[in-house]
């Protein structure tokens, strides 16, 4: 068993700075868990606490049924892959991968078997005699992962391992990491600020903000039903449109759609859930937009618009029964792109609308 359990884990730095404010979650045996959030949210600090590189102020970290709070990193049976590869430049690929095993006193024949097996899995066997300077960024990252694999640990920890790679290579490497984890069936915790990376890699997704967990769940469940407006705007690209709705507007705009809220609320609509008027059912929410900007990305087009005055003047405060103004992003098929300055009508089906409390801290309804 190699599950990882965090129980009310906290980290307070000198001066009273609370980096981690009490976090509880469990990563099951063989699961791939991704910690995602903006810079400074505490995700790397939390990972380093699991690794033993940061002390814990309070709470417990349990790895494989053993509380490891007071156990040194080398004795926690984990292996970590860092953002900067951390390879020894004077050593060959083979020796970089074998170094940790030699320090542990493992017999040479067993080291050789482990290194060559890992190299075969990662398809770097022809590179075993090369030095890191002779490798590309993606190849160096494979060596760093190979060094972790040969350890055969209970848990893999990844701290933004793809941040130094270009966009195309990042896509290829995240696919390789997921395939590798499924093949090895090793419990893994992965830190990233890239929500696309998080969505594609995770079995369980932990969305963090300000040293706290905003939501935990399967990636698609979080995408479909975000618990807060932070999650709604952070998960998804482009982000969800969020519109403040005054209490006296609910009776006009949303009541017809049978959407109820106790007072003021925030309405969320994902860009991809809009369609040009007429493509959605009559029970959908209808908005008129003035097109301000367009981004063409091949098969799709992102339309940035604002709700105009009826007489064509600038955007103003909402009238009774209307949603308030603000920039709205709509994702349309590439061939359906309107022109800048054009007025368009878009609609979204009722079951694609999300309602949150005014402060954005809780979801209203399902």
Automatic annotation (TrEMBL):
The record's annotation in CDD domains points to: ABC_MalK_N (cd03301)
Subcellular location as annotated: Cell inner membrane
Which keywords label this protein? ATP-binding, Cell inner membrane, Cell membrane, Membrane, Nucleotide-binding, Sugar transport, Translocase, Transport
Q: Which GO terms are recorded in the biological process aspect for this UniProt protein?
A: carbohydrate transport; glycerol-3-phosphate transmembrane transport; glycerophosphodiester transmembrane transport
State the membrane topology.
Answer: Peripheral membrane protein
Q: Which SMART domains match?
A: AAA
Please give the GO cellular component terms listed in this UniProt entry. Answer: ATP-binding cassette (ABC) transporter complex, substrate-binding subunit-containing
Alphabetical list of InterPro entries matching this protein: AAA+_ATPase, ABC_transporter-like_ATP-bd, ABC_transporter-like_CS, ABC_transpr_MalK-like, ABC_transpr_MalK/UgpC-like, Mo/tungstate-bd_C_term_dom, NA-bd_OB-fold, P-loop_NTPase
Q: Where is the ABC transporter domain?
A: 4-235
Q: What is its main location?
A: membrane
List, in alphabetical order, the Gene Ontology terms for molecular function in this entry.
ABC-type transporter activity; ATP binding; ATP hydrolysis activity
Summary of the function given for this chain in its UniProt record = Involved in beta-(1-->2)glucan export. Transmembrane domains (TMD) form a pore in the inner membrane and the ATP-binding domain (NBD) is responsible for energy generation.
Give the NCBIfam families listed for this entry. Answer: PRK11650.1 (NF008653)
* Record family assignment: Belongs to the ABC transporter superfamily.
Entry protein name: sn-glycerol 3-phosphate transport system ATP-binding protein
What's the source species' lineage?
A: Bacteria, Pseudomonadati, Pseudomonadota, Alphaproteobacteria, Hyphomicrobiales
């Amino acid at each position: 068993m190699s599950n990882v359990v965090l129980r009310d884990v906290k980290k307070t730095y000198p001066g009273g700075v609370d980096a981690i404010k009490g976090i509880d979650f469990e990563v099951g045996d063989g699961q791939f868990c991704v910690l995602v959030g903006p810079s400074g949210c505490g995700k790397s600090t939390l990972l380093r606490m699991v690794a033993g590189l940061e002390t814990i102020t309070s709470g417990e970290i349990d790895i494989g049924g053993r509380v490891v709070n007071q156990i040194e990193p080398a004795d926690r049976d984990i292996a970590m892959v860092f953002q900067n590869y951390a390879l020894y430049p004077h050593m060959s690929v083979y020796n970089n991968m074998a170094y940790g095993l030699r320090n542990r006193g493992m017999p040479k024949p067993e080291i050789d078997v482990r290194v060559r097996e890992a190299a075969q899995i990662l398809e770097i066997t022809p590179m075993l005699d090369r030095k890191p300077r002779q490798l590309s960024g993606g190849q160096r990252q494979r060596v760093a992962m190979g060094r972790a694999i040969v350890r055969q640990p209970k848990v893999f920890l990844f701290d933004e391992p793809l941040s130094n790679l270009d966009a195309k290579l990042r896509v290829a490497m995240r696919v390789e990491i997921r395939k590798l984890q499924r093949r090895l069936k090793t419990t893994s915790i992965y830190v990233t600020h890239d929500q696309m990376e998080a969505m594609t890699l995770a079995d369980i997704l932990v969305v963090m903000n300000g040293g706290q967990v905003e939501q935990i769940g399967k990636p698609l469940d979080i995408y479909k039903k975000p618990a807060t407006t932070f999650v709604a705007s952070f998960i998804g690209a482009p982000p969800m449109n969020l519109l403040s709705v005054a209490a006296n507007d609910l009776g006009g705009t949303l009541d017809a759609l049978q959407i109820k809220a106790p007072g003021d609320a925030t309405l969320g609509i994902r860009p991809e859930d809009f369609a040009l008027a007429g493509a959605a059912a009559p029970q959908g929410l209808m908005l008129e937009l003035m097109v301000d900007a367009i981004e063409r990305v091949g098969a799709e087009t992102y339309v940035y618009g604002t709700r105009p005055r009826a007489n064509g003047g600038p955007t103003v405060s909402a009238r009774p029964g209307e949603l308030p103004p603000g920039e709205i992003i709509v994702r349309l098929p590439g061939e359906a792109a309107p022109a800048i300055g054009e007025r368009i009508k878009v609609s979204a089906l009722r079951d694609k609308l999300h309602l949150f409390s005014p402060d954005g801290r809780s979801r209203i309804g399902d």
